[in-house]
Write a sequence for this structure.
């Protein structure tokens, strides 16, 4: 249902549910994944990885490995010591942040299980894998540091010489003391954001060749452009001598928004050996060494009036950095800092985040990056507040949210939300969900003591995405801008090539960009080809993450189209023999205003430009254009998600009975793509609520190295999603679009956990740590019943 | 990960396979559907020198009606079990359990013989075989022999098959129409192993349970027969409450493992709850 329509009148391709043009080649395998590449003389790298969470390296002997059949070379960290540099952290969030040296291959000390200490290079993968066990590494174990709650204690072992604290970042607005002083209601809760392992369908893979000092690096990466810059900075290889290609990439969810040790080392090895090399991780290797996500302890306090109005909010985070700071590790919790106040009005807000080192795999961006954590904490807490006040959870939200009439609205966190309609999304979600009927059924089950209890969970979320205004990134000490680049080229035959700096890895850019261009230039969808993911083909870009592609990259494409039209208009004016200001362009055709029906299509102009026979003086024979767009603001999609869970109180099993998501992502270019993003996002958020957790044992060994232990839900485990949309166009970009890539993930986790707690509150349960496994749910029920009304955290095993 | 080097033989007769396996000694392994062995090879948890691929031995395929029993060939896939009319008629429990294993792709390759000889106590079919009082048939250098399911599973991933012996199939006594069954599998995702599974069979007579058999998945190092609960159920009224009381003994013989998915006390609790449910369903309560 559409509650508002875009005043800019979507033309024929906008809003059309086109199947994605890239899917045929992706789903049939008729494409090039990095691991499929082969080059003459290609060698294969296998890494020797630390079995210790923390140890001093006393010796590395690769000589036996060098003698193994098929092995061409074997290296230890010492072999790279003077050329490998330090893996970059591009987000030094405070002036006094501690950023430890992070050698791609460890030379003196290892600080997490899986850290590379040596490698072998062989003629095939089998020989390389065999030779790994022939490398002899001596370790002197050091004490691991595994719990961020104790890592800052005086007597804690140190991960790095400088200690275990990386930074402390604070934000404050309004008079917090006043908000809490004499507040009729104060709720304080502690939540655990468990550690997650991003699980893209395609594992990481890299191929690198070095010919005459010029490098070509293929990588399953989200960020070919950023990677190129960073590889130049890390290795000292001149940037112009590095070409990075991201062929078709099978998902990333943030995990491929990284400059990895393996990419740097592939370059160095290719240069040392003068031969191309390849490395592809196995799933178990990936679980250990792909950067992890989340891992925070959150303390949240809210002060409120008896009528439910929130006065103030205070948040204190401990964030596990892992062993090192990677590309944006310290910035992830900051992306959440601005989102704790969410859609709510309040007088005061304070935020503090302490980044702490541990001897675990570093954390970094994972779908939502900071915003899921914030949204979870505030949405869980709004439910707790509602319960404390005896109010309906939607009612307490409505009492606090920014009303439609109040937009644009500057929040207590300093963000200016340009648009939104929380009332409309919530009303629609309630209707689709059958909210009132489910509440009745819940009451009936409670009254009858049914072993299967029903819970209803609410999440009225917003998020900030479309990263990002470069000025804002600068003010947050991020090391790059947030613009995006696009080129549009009219070919002589009237077809169109679009070059985009957004680097697709499953998002459907080729389809969406074609729809944008088809509408703007008035050319058939089929006549448009979108090129991306190769720094030689699309030389400028900031790549794909943070739900930024459409709101930044898409606008750049639109802007490049307008430049093409402007150029074409000058030529059309000459051919139509009318002054430019008299020439109109619509649906692909130029005509002179009031002219006698003479027209020129943009395709005809393209051919005329190619021939260049009759161009006006001083007009260059080109319809190519290049545009770079730097957004003025973030985009703020929002929505209301409602979840009903059934809980088997005898076993603790949680079943999602129904799930309704009404999202507002502004104007929709392609509803199929939006639905796909929402479905996948919800699934990933449900996965955090119910299934996923990276578990380290007391020695710092990762226990969840396979998918038998790191559980991911499949379609068989997920309910039908009822999705709908309200459309409140963004006012900060010309298409009225907002990001959608992370919305589902951000919204769904608290909806599910709220539903679980809603069902279990009657047993005295106040929280169940994520993932809410059957065992934890069952133990929480037991503990709650045992202790009467006192809340328990269940089995935090 | 990728496997270490191994030799590979693909014999065309059972006797040839037995010979190849015997010649290979302790470091030879049989491969059929590969759904258990290949992950072990890829994770380098298993390093056989020789794989004897029995995939072409068609005599080990299919379901044969022997009158009082069915003989099911070792190479019969889970998917074939699901769709076989003889199994549906005479030992539907097997089909019900096979349907819960992993996903369709795995079920199309995974074989019954592989599941039994791998002897993973977390796999579903060993407990079903135990509950069905099945016998395993095997051929080795010394000839054919039959092994009762209770004697077949020796320890975690260990069977009583002798070196050189190949599991050829298993024989299941037919169950009459007065028997009911239920496999209760408790797992967190569809593709996950059972945290606990309960295979229950019950023969109902005059409003009572005349006889019950219960096999437990993942409640010990081998599939466990819950004899105490079986005895308590025998003669009990076919009612939810009576069968729940019998099920309270379901974990008496169990020694459940502890892992990320469940501590032993939780598994014991689950075994009792699920046995109550499985018995009730099997008794058509």
């Amino acid at each position: 249902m559409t509650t508002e329509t875009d005043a800019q009148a979507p033309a024929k391709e906008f809003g059309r549910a086109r199947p994605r043009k890239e899917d045929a080649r992706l789903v049939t395998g008729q494409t090039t994944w990095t691991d499929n590449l082969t080059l003459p003389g290609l060698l294969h790298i296998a890494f020797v990885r630390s079995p210790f969470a923390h140890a001093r390296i006393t010796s590395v002997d690769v000589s036996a490995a060098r003698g193994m059949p098929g092995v061409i070379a074997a290296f230890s960290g010492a072999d790279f010591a003077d050329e490998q540099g330090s893996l970059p952290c591009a987000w030094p969030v405070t002036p006094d942040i501690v950023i430890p040296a992070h050698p791609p291959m460890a030379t003196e000390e290892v600080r997490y299980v899986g850290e590379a200490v040596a490698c072998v290079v062989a003629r095939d993968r089998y020989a390389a894998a065999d030779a790994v066990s022939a490398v002899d590494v001596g370790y002197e174990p050091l004490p691991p540091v595994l719990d961020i709650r104790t890592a800052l204690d005086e007597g804690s072992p140190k991960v790095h010489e400088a200690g275990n604290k990386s930074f402390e970042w604070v934000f404050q607005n309004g008079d917090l003391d006043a908000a809490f002083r004499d507040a009729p209601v104060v709720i304080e809760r502690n939540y655990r954001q468990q550690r997650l392992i991003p699980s893209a369908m395609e594992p990481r893979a890299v191929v690198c060749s070095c010919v005459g000092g010029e490098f070509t690096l293929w990588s399953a990466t989200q960020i070919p452009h950023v990677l190129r810059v960073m590889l130049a900075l890390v290795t000292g290889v001149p940037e112009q001598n590095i070409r990075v290609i991201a062929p078709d990439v099978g998902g990333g969810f943030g995990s491929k928004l990284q400059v990895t040790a393996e990419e740097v080392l592939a370059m160095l090895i290719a240069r040392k050996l003068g031969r191309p090399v390849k490395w592809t991780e196995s799933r178990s290797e990936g679980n250990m060494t792909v950067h992890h996500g989340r891992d925070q302890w959150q303390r949240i306090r809210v002060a409120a009036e008896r009528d439910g109005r929130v006065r103030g909010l205070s948040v204190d985070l401990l964030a596990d950095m892992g062993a090192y700071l990677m590309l944006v590790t310290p910035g992830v919790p900051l992306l959440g800092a601005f989102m704790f106040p969410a859609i709510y009005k309040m007088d005061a807000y304070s935020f503090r985040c302490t980044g702490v080192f541990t001897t675990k795999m570093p954390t970094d961006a994972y779908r939502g990056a900071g915003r899921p954590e914030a949204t979870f904490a505030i949405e869980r807490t709004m439910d707790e507040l509602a319960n404390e006040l005896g109010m309906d959870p939607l009612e307490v939200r409505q009492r606090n949210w920014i009303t439609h009439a109040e937009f644009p609205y500057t929040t207590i966190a300093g963000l200016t939300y340009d648009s939104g309609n929380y009332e409309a999304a919530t009303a629609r979600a309630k209707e689709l969900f059958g909210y009132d009927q489910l509440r009745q059924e819940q009451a009936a089950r409670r009254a009858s003591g049914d072993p299967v209890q029903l819970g209803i969970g609410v999440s009225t979320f917003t998020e900030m995405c479309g990263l990002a205004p470069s000025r804002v990134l600068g003010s947050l000490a991020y090391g790059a801008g947030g613009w995006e680049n696009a080129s549009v080229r009219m070919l002589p035959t009237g077809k169109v090539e679009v070059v985009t700096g957004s680097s697709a890895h499953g998002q459907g850019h080729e389809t969406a960009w074609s729809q944008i261009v088809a509408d703007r230039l008035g050319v058939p969808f089929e006549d448009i080809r979108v090129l991306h993911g190769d720094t030689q083909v699309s030389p400028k870009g900031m790549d794909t993450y943070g739900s930024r592609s459409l709101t930044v990259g898409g606008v750049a494409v639109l802007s490049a189209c307008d430049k093409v039209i402007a150029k074409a208009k000058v030529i059309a004016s000459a051919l139509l023999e009318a002054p430019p200001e008299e020439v109109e362009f619509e649906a692909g055709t130029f005509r002179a205003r009031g002219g006698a029906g003479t027209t020129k299509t943009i395709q005809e102009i393209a051919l005329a430009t190619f021939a260049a026979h009759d161009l006006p003086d001083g007009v260059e024979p080109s319809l190519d254009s290049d545009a770079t767009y730097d957004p003025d603001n973030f985009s703020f999609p929002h929505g209301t998600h409602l979840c009903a869970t059934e809980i088997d109180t005898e076993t603790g099993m949680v079943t999602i009975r129904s799930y309704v998501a009404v999202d507002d992502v502004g104007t929709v270019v392609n509803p199929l793509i939006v639905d796909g993003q929402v479905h996948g996002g919800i699934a990933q958020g449900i996965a955090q609520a119910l299934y996923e957790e990276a578990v380290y044992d007391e020695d710092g060994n990762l226990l969840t190295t396979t998918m038998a232990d790191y559980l991911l839900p499949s379609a068989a485990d997920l309910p039908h999603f009822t999705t709908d949309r309200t459309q409140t166009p963004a006012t900060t970009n010309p298409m009225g679009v907002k990001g959608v890539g992370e919305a589902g993930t951000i919204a769904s986790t608290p909806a599910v956990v709220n539903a679980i707690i809603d069902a279990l509150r009657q047993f005295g349960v106040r929280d169940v740590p994520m993932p809410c496994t059957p065992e934890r749910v069952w133990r929480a029920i037991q503990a709650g019943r045992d202790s009467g009304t006192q809340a328990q955290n269940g089995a935090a095993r | 990960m990728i496997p270490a080097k191994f030799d590979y033989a693909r014999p065309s007769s059972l006797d040839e396979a037995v010979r190849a396996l015997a010649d290979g000694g302790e470091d030879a392994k049989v491969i059929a559907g590969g759904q258990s062995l290949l992950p072990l090879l890829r994770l380098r948890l298993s390093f056989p020198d020789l794989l004897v691929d029995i995939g072409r031995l068609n005599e080990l395929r299919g379901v044969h009606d022997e009158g009082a029993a069915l003989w099911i060939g070792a190479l019969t896939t889970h998917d074939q079990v699901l769709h076989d009319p003889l199994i549906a008629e005479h030992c539907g429990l097997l089909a019900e359990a096979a349907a819960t294993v992993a996903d369709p792709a795995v079920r199309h390759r995974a074989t019954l013989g592989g599941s039994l000889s791998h002897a993973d106590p977390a796999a579903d079919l060993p407990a079903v075989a135990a509950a069905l009082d099945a016998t395993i048939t095997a051929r080795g250098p010394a000839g054919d022999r039959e092994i009762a399911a209770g004697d077949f599973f020796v320890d975690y991933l260990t069977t009583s098959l002798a070196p050189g012996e190949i599991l050829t199939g298993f024989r299941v006594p037919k169950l009459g129409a007065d028997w009911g069954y239920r496999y209760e599998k408790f797992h967190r995702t569809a593709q996950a192993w059972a945290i606990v599974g309960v295979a229950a069979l019950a023969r109902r007579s005059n409003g009572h349970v005349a006889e019950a058999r219960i096999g437990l998945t993942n409640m010990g190092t081998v599939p466990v027969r819950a004899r105490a609960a079986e005895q308590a159920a025998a003669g009990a009224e076919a009612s939810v409450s009576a069968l729940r009381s019998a099920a309270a003994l379901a974990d008496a013989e169990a020694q459940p493992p502890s892992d990320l998915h469940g501590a032993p006390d939780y598994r014991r609790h689950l075994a009792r709850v699920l046995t109550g449910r499985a018995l009730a369903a099997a008794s058509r309560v």
Remarks:
- Chain A has a mean pLDDT of 95.
- The first strand of chain A starts at residue 43 and ends at 49.
